[in-house]
C-alpha cells in the first residue's frame, strides 16, 4: 500500500468547501452521504475531524481517501477506529484497510457516485477497466467500516 501519494487541498477546498460541508454535517445535513470523520491523532492523541464521503455498497460501508495518504488515513491506520458524526448522531466504528485488489468495485462505485467532486484525484475515466483501477488503487487508501473493536456481535 502506498504511503507517499498525497494531493494537498487548494485554498478553496480547505478554506471554503470543507468548512461548509463540515458545518452542514454538524447541523445534521448530509450532502451526498457526507459525514464528519473523527479519528484520534496518532501523535497528539487529540481528536481530529475532517469531512468525508461515506460510501454504502452491497450492505457494506467504506471510507475512501481520494487525495491519497492524508493525515486522517495515517491516524485511522494507527488507531483502527473512529467516529462518524452527522448532527447530534455520533457513530463509533472499527476500520479494516482494503488490499488493492479488494478496492476495485469500491473505487469504481465511489468514482461513479462522487466523480464531480473527486474526479480530479483519480487517473481513470468512467469506462475504466479493472486493470486501470488496480493501477491507481495504491494511491487511494480505502477502509471497510463496521462495529467498533470490542463491540458485541449484532450491536
Reported by name, the CATH topology is Pnp Oxidase, Chain A
Helix/strand/pairing category: alpha+beta
Shape: globular
- Give the strand order of the largest sheet, numbering strands 1, 2, ... along the chain: 1-2-3-6-5-4
Alpha-carbon distance between the termini? 31 Å
Any idea what the CATH architecture is? Roll
Number of spatially distinct domains: 1
Q: What value does the Rg take, in angstroms?
A: 15 Å
How many helices does DSSP assign?
Answer: 4
Question: Could you name the key traits of this structure?
Answer:
31% helix; 155 residues; single chain; alpha+beta; 6-stranded antiparallel barrel; Pnp Oxidase, Chain A
Could you characterize what this model shows?
It is a single chain. By secondary structure, this protein is of the alpha+beta class. It has a single domain, classed as Roll (Pnp Oxidase, Chain A). The protein has four helices and six strands, in the order αβββαββααβ. It has a six-stranded antiparallel barrel. The protein is globular and about 40 Å long.
Amino acid at each position: 500500500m502506498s504511503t507517499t501519494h498525497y494531493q494537498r487541498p487548494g485554498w478553496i477546498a480547505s478554506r471554503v468547501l470543507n468548512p461548509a460541508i463540515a458545518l452542514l454535517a454538524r447541523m445534521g445535513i448530509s450532502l451526498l452521504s457526507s459525514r464528519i470523520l473523527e479519528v484520534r491523532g496518532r501523535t497528539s492523541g487529540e481528536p481530529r475531524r475532517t469531512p468525508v464521503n461515506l460510501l454504502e455498497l452491497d450492505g457494506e460501508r467504506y471510507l475512501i481517501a481520494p487525495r491519497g495518504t492524508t493525515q486522517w488515513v495515517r491516524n485511522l491506520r494507527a488507531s483502527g477506529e473512529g467516529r462518524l458524526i452527522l448532527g447530534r448522531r455520533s457513530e463509533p466504528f472499527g476500520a479494516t484497510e482494503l488490499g488493492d485488489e479488494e478496492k476495485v468495485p469500491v473505487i469504481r462505485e465511489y468514482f461513479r457516485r462522487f466523480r464531480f467532486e473527486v474526479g480530479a484525484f483519480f487517473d481513470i475515466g468512467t469506462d475504466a477497466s479493472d486493470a486501470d483501477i488496480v493501477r491507481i488503487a495504491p494511491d487511494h487508501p480505502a477502509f471497510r467500516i463496521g462495529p467498533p473493536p470490542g463491540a458485541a456481535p449484532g450491536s
